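Query structure, 268 tokens:
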């Protein structure tokens, strides 16, 4: 048992010495800037971005104001992005676009700054602050470089983020409906229809506003039921006209039948 313990201890010492004398550790401790830069290139190729960043932090200021500064800045931003340190990569790419406004890779940097924000966008059920920032940044890129190399990808990302915001807004409104808060649901769906005109949830919103108005009307005091059902009928007409092939059409027709079958208490 003692021999086994000593064996493991020896292995630990050897491993520690090997690590301490590794090329990376030598570069990290060295005063030789070029050695650090060569090691950065090696680490980037091996996708060891965290270690590369540690070396970048030691040398980046030494290149400030030199001809190599732009390339070094872009390489640093790339390492941050691939290390998934997106807030820092966004800042680094944005700083590059400001510092090098005429650089041939400025369009790439502007796009990657926006894409860094895109990567920070949360799932639709969470706060969408980063989604809105990413949308604005992507739109900035598209506006500045309408024929740019990354416009096609930027448009794909824009569509994805807009769909996420659409779903967020739609689910908020539908949650009011499911909790039987019909007035709030109607208002939310009306706002959704106005604010998200190109959304794939437009027919869903129109159907749920119809259903919300019907439920609100049929459960009102008797004297208010007719006028509220009449408004529901108007919502039905709008829905049927705009979305005649909707998956909700059968449900909408059932609601219309209930509206038309309703008899005020005075006629019972």
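Result returned for the query:
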């Amino acid at each position: 048992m003692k021999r086994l313990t000593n064996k493991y201890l020896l292995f630990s010492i050897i491993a520690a010495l090997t690590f301490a004398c590794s090329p990376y550790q030598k570069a990290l401790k060295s005063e030789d800037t070029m050695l650090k830069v060569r090691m950065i290139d090696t680490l980037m190729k091996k996708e060891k971005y965290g270690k590369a960043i540690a070396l970048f932090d030691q040398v980046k200021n030494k290149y400030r104001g030199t001809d190599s500064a732009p390339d070094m800045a872009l390489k640093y931003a790339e390492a941050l992005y691939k290390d998934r340190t997106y807030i820092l990569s966004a800042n680094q790419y944005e700083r590059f676009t400001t510092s090098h406004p005429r650089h041939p890779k400025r369009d790439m940097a502007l796009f990657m700054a926006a894409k860094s924000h895109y990567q920070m966008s949360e799932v639709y059920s969470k706060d969408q602050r980063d989604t809105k920032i990413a949308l604005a940044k992507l739109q900035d890129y598209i506006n500045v470089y309408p024929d740019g190399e990354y416009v096609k990808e930027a448009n794909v990302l824009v569509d994805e983020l807009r769909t996420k915001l659409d779903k967020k807004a739609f689910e908020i409104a539908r949650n009011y409906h499911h909790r039987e808060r019909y007035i709030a649901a109607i208002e939310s769906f009306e706002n959704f229809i106005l604010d998200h005109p190109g959304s794939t949830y437009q027919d869903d919103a129109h159907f749920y506003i119809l259903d919300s108005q019907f439920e609100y009307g049929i459960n009102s005091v008797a004297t208010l039921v007719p006028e509220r059902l009449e408004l529901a009928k108007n919502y039905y007409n709008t829905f049927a006209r705009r979305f005649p092939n909707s998956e909700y059409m059968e449900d909408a027709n059932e609601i219309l039948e209930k509206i038309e079958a309703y008899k005020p208490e005075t006629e019972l």
